Every structure is written in C-alpha cells, then in structure tokens.
What we know:
Helix content is 48%, strand content 14%. It has 419 residues and is of the alpha/beta class.
Amino acid sequence: MRYFIIAGEASGDLHASHLVTAIRKEDAEAQFQGLGGDLMAAAGVEVLWHYRTMAYMGFVQVVLHLPQILRAMRACKAAMEAYRPDAIILVDYPGFNLNIAAWARKHLDAPIFYYIAPKIWAWKEGRIRKIRRNVDKVLSILPFEVDYFERKHGYPVHYVGNPSRAEIDDFLQQDTCTWKDFCETHHLEPQRKIVALLAGSRRSEIAANLPRMLQAFALVQAEHVASGKGQSSAPTEPSVHTIAEHAAHPQGFQAVIAAAPGIALEEYAPYLEGHPHVHLVSSATFALLKHAHAALVTSGTATLETALFGVPQVVCYHIRGGALVRAIQPHFLNCRFISLVNLIADDEVVPELIADHTAPHHIARHLLPLLDDESAARQAQLSGYARMRAQLGTNVAPQEGARLVVHALREGIASSALT
Length: 419
C-alpha cells in the first residue's frame, strides 16, 4: 500500500521515521512519499520537501516565510494528487497539517490518520472542529489526551504509548559509552559533573533562552573549585560568591550545550564567549542526558526526554513582555502547566520558569538544590519521574500505531471501529 506522511520539524521527523519502520514490518509492500527530513529518508520515505524549509514558529516568523510555506503546501497537494495514497499520516505540525487534511478530505479518497495530536488542550481549542471534520483517527502519544478529547469533545482517540519512552529505553539498552568515553569524545573534563543545557530547537528559542541559562550556570559555577565549601540552604540574595559556596560537587560542574539539529555549531560561538567550562556537543542529546547530573531545559519534548533519563531539571521558557505575558496567559493557555512532565503527572514535578521569572538569578536558585544528590528537591523530582513513567504505560508507540493503521486499511473499517 502507498502511504503519504508529513512531518514539519525535527522531532516529527524522528517519530515519523520510527513509525515508517514499524509499518514496513506490518506491510511488506509499503511505499512511502512525503514531507520530512533525513531520518524519514533513511527509513525509506521519498522525501519531496525537507522540513527545514517549513519549520517556523511564531506569527512574525510565519509571516516572513509565508511564500516558502505556501510553496511547500502547493507542492505537497500536487504530490498527493499524483501519488493517490492509500493512507495519509500527519505527524504533529498542526498549522500545516490541518490545512492539508481539509484539502485531502475534499480531493482524495484515503483515510487520514493523525499521529501526535494537535495540542488543543493547551491552545487553539477550536481546531477540534477541523479534526472532527477531516481526520479519521487520532493516534495519541499522551495518556491524558484520551480523557480530554472524549470527555470534553466527544471525540474518541487511541493512546498508542509514548515514542520517547521507547526510543530512550532502546538507546539505554544499546549504548555502551562510558563516562570516560563520553568525556574523551567531546573533550570534557571528567572531574566535573555535567549540567546539560537544552535551549530549544529553533533559533528564536535559543536566542531567548541560552544566554539566560549560561548566566545562571555562571552564578552557580564561578569560583566553585576555589571555594570548596560545604552546602547549606540557597542564598536569599544570589551572587557569584554566595551561590558558589553552596554548590554540591567539590570539583565543580561543566555546562554542556546540546546543539539543535540543522543549526551549525558556528552559530553558537557568540553565546560561548566569556563562559569557561561550557562545551558544545552535536548529534548527542541522548548521550548527553545519559551522563548529565542536572539540566536546564526549554519546554517541549526535551523536558520529557530529560525526565525519562532521570535527570533533575529546571524548565525555562523566556518570553518577551514579562509580567504582561504572565497576566494574559490564562486567556490563551488552557492548561495548568507547560512542560510535558507536569502535564502527564498532573502535578508540579519540575519547576517551570516562564516570562518574567527567567532572570538568571532566579534560574540559579532553582538549579542549585538539584546539584546536591541528597537534597529533598532532587529526590522529589526523581520520585515524580517514577510516577510519570508509570502513567505512560508500556505500549511501544510506533508498533501500536502501525498496527492500527495497517489493520484499518486491510479491513476497510471506519475509524470508530479501530481497537
């Protein structure tokens, strides 16, 4: 059977590639075309348009690149019309994919599956109308979405498991890299524990968050070795000296930035000036999290990945407008939390610092207790991670999603009959 699959950014490319591999095991004759990236291409998809030409976030960025996005949309529709797929699989990226779904419903006779549902529980709840009209089945990767869609909107969705859990479990089973190997490969200092900095996948996110993360780390790390003092409670008025006095590891820490896919390492150089003990790794996020002691993370899938590796974290998401953004947040954000960890656990497992709460000293105050192995804050996060992991269940998302899609096509049954 022929499948047309669309992913519009790096995380979607990763999850789509695993879904494609799983579908091939269910359907030996499967053929794939679509929009995506290098990982989908490696999995056997004929990628007609690379996601890097479409992955723009925010109103201004979308408007500036609108001609490029529209060209990709036209090319996608023309390709689908020529290919005449037996199934259409949309992966996240709702602004683009819901438009494609509406067009495909009118012009093609193929069932439409949505893998990784639009996050209408957070914002743009009105999208449920487009989903109801144009999507045959939503394959959810977040357990709380089942109750949300069915209870609030009467729209059944199928939870297939979370792909990040399976991906990380597989990585940990296969990876044999030791601490010594990792430090040697990336020219790190083996006597210093690692604070991972995951500042986002887009240039705008990196520009907004990475400088603040680096300044917060500098407060915690500066003069650390020279002080060599014991730990106590966090300082009430943070400074380079007082925070350094309370750091937990006598040999200090080093910050390691995980470079985002598709962003050249040279682009990070201006951020690193004046920051000793800060390093940069590329294509090694999972390896970094395996060896990290704590992390500063921009909200997104990375928060869940960090938790699944058991790394205590502070979630940081700087937004211009500070107090104003915080004041109007309840009017456009429909959920209590912004991080997947807290959303899945339905509890504040990790601190979320957004808008006017992302000053470096504020981030440092929350990071500091997480560096101490025995601190209550660190132990509370690890306990919360265990509860969250249990809620994710044991289904392997790509395999379960592939089974549902291929079964539906072979049986020719309506989405409501999928089980």
